Automatic annotation (TrEMBL):
<dbReference type="InterPro" id="IPR051915">
    <property type="entry name" value="Cellulose_Degrad_GH3"/>
</dbReference>
<dbReference type="InterPro" id="IPR017853">
    <property type="entry name" value="GH"/>
</dbReference>
<protein>
    <recommendedName>
        <fullName>beta-glucosidase</fullName>
        <ecNumber>3.2.1.21</ecNumber>
    </recommendedName>
</protein>
<dbReference type="Pfam" id="PF14310">
    <property type="entry name" value="Fn3-like"/>
</dbReference>
<keyword id="KW-0732">Signal</keyword>
<keyword id="KW-0378">Hydrolase</keyword>
<dbReference type="InterPro" id="IPR019800">
    <property type="entry name" value="Glyco_hydro_3_AS"/>
</dbReference>
<dbReference type="Pfam" id="PF01915">
    <property type="entry name" value="Glyco_hydro_3_C"/>
</dbReference>
<feature type="domain" description="Fibronectin type III-like">
    <location>
        <begin position="653"/>
        <end position="722"/>
    </location>
</feature>
<dbReference type="InterPro" id="IPR026891">
    <property type="entry name" value="Fn3-like"/>
</dbReference>
<comment type="similarity">
    <text>Belongs to the glycosyl hydrolase 3 family.</text>
</comment>
<dbReference type="InterPro" id="IPR036881">
    <property type="entry name" value="Glyco_hydro_3_C_sf"/>
</dbReference>
<dbReference type="InterPro" id="IPR001764">
    <property type="entry name" value="Glyco_hydro_3_N"/>
</dbReference>
<dbReference type="InterPro" id="IPR002772">
    <property type="entry name" value="Glyco_hydro_3_C"/>
</dbReference>
<dbReference type="GO" id="GO:0008422">
    <property type="term" value="F:beta-glucosidase activity"/>
</dbReference>
<dbReference type="InterPro" id="IPR036962">
    <property type="entry name" value="Glyco_hydro_3_N_sf"/>
</dbReference>
<keyword id="KW-0326">Glycosidase</keyword>
Amino acid sequence: MSNSASGLPASSHEKLPMHVYLERMTLDEKIAQLIQLAVPFFEGASDAGLITGPMASLGISEQTVHNAGSVLGMAGAQETINVQRKHLENNRLGIPLLMMADIVHGFKTIFPVPLAIGCSWNLELAELSAEIAAKEASVSGVHVTYAPMVDLVRDPRWGRVMESTGEDPYLNSLFARAFVRGFQGSDLAGDQDRVAACVKHFAAYGAAEAGRDYNTVDISPRQLREFYLPAYKAALDEGCEMVMTAFNTVDGIPATGNEPLMRKLLRDEWGFDGILISDWGAVKELIAHGIAADESEAALKAIRAGVDIEMMTACYTHHLNELISNGEVSESLIDESVLRILQLKDKLGLFENPYRAADPVREQEIVFSDAHRASALELAHKSCVLLKNDGILPLKPSQRIAVIGPFARSGDLLGPWSWTGSQDAIIRLSEAIRGKLINPAVMTVADGCGIDTATEEQWSEAATAAQEADVIVLALGEDSDMSGEAGCRADIRLPQVQLELIRRVQELGKPIVAVLFNGRPLDLHGVFEESNAVLEAWFPGSEGGLAVADLLFGDANPSGRLTMSFPFSVGQVPVYYNAFNTGRPQGAADAQVRYVSQYLDIPNEPLLPFGFGLSYASFEYADAALSSDTMTPEQTLSVTVRVTNTGAVAGVETVQLYVRDVSGEVVRPVKELKGFRQIELQPGESREVAFELTEEQLRYYHSDLSHSSDAGAFVAFVGASSRDNASLPFRLVK
């Protein structure tokens, strides 16, 4: 075979069965397959040889590079072809490289960040976003993406909440499956428009103490299984090819060297036989964690834990040979890992065509195409969440609008993990709003301040811009470096200069619409009460400016619903809907005034709860009912409710079903999401929404880690959010 774009032969080596490659490899060649290096190490790359900083200290020989198994951070059809061609010339057995990259929420066509995608509650569009990302990445030479991240998140101080889909294990599991289906399709071997997925970060990275990246995680085995593991398991059940280790500890052992977690749970109990890869530098970090005295012990513990690929450290390269020689490591462990790597390369068809789908001509046709951008626009429409509206929205094309704020003219709408996207190719919010107006000439624009700095000139410019406006749109938020990996913040309010901008603009007495661009739930003090409307846009992606303008003017109706609670104050954090009740809950019928579980200075409840979101339509719930007040293991229970659009425009409502186990063997959350339905209703239209509730959905992990349900009292809740719902008691009878 040959690659149609390059005209290069696929390989000068005849393809052999994978076990034959393994048999013919020297030990050094095997060990080299287990290392993953960045692009500058490889001949043929545009920045080949630019090995500086920590990369220069790895001590990697040229021969090791020639035998390396994979490269990270590479994209671009011609570049990947060039590197693969040179690699095959240098590799004795003609074993191709795996090209891996972080394609998290889009390749060139950038979709909203995953937390925003979660707020769409739209699994079909989530899957489509991953399918499009895979198609663009694959034609650009990528074979594997480090996605989806399915870590359950409860602490918005942690920057990487933007990369998750929220605080609920059930919903996260559904999105995990959808993303894996989108990336991999149903025939990874035959469909070259797909890429292999790598679920991350195993395990419980989202529970990092104090919301600080790379920090300690300490949760019980039962909590781990109940809340944090389900989404990883869902991704693997969907066929996800790879797993990435987490940076954090799990039960006192860093995940990358955690043999009980990786060998006993992931490999033995769950039966995962795909590739396990470390995160960047995580093998060597076992030394800093304090479970390895040196690189040799780090290599020993990682390979025993089952880590197949070491990313960007050289502990395996420098020490596995010696560890095998002295009998501390069996060569069979190396063979297991190498065979898994070879098998994925074989599944991707790289031995027959090492360039796979990389095609510079087709790349120009596919990447950032109009069809892909249209899908990004649709998902951005559905991901934004309307948090407040006193009637000022939607705006009217005849109004005089002032667009003020650091995001008024900013291209920073893509968010973290959008390294292949282009800010230059997107329409800014002020441009998109101008396109909606009957008389664009009367619109004014001003920055007002920077993200976290301001000048008197900027204040003055904002005041002038607002002077003649009917409505002020304040475009506020965090820049993309303030969230994502290593983007943790102790103070999750808007920067002080932006709060000052709101205060100064409010003194003008004009209606204010706040549009927020950010990667985490914020403490909205200084924004929420001071604004007539608040639209949470997140980082909405390539088409974000257009999407927000459509929503502000009613050309699209907001339908997003929060999948992570917005705290009243950072002092509540972590605050989440599926919490335990405590023995002295606030508000109980027999509760005392003081001696209950509460704060003296703020409410217990978040400002905005899980599942919350407004629309330009209004929805009325009625006639909530159960088919029976008892359930048995053999008989399902039907939960029904009638929803009516009582507004003047069509809208999409997300009807949500929750359950509480009133009396369990261990304490149970006050509510747990068990199902949802999205329905579109015309003005005046009513529809009955039905859910089927089964005994299996009532099971949970007991103190002995068995998974079963308990007979007894339960309550079903059906409604518009985790806060706004009707309660329906029933009993499970066994």
